[in-house]
Amino acid sequence: MPVEVAPAVAATSTTMEITVSKFELLRELTATQGVVERKTTIPILSNYLFEAAGDKLSLTATDLDLSLRTSCNAKVKKEGACTVPARKLYDYVKLLPDADITIRLLENHWVSIRCGRSNTKMVGMARSNFPGLPVFPSAGVIKIPAAVLRSMIAKTGFAIASEESRYTLNGALMVLKPESITMVATDGHRLAHVERTRLLVHVLDMAPELWAGEGEDPPRNHATIERELAAHDARLAALPRRAAARAPCRGWRRLPRRAIRSRSGAA
Question: Which CATH superfamily is domain 142-204 in?
Answer without folding.
Answer: DNA Polymerase III, subunit A, domain 2 (3.10.150.10)
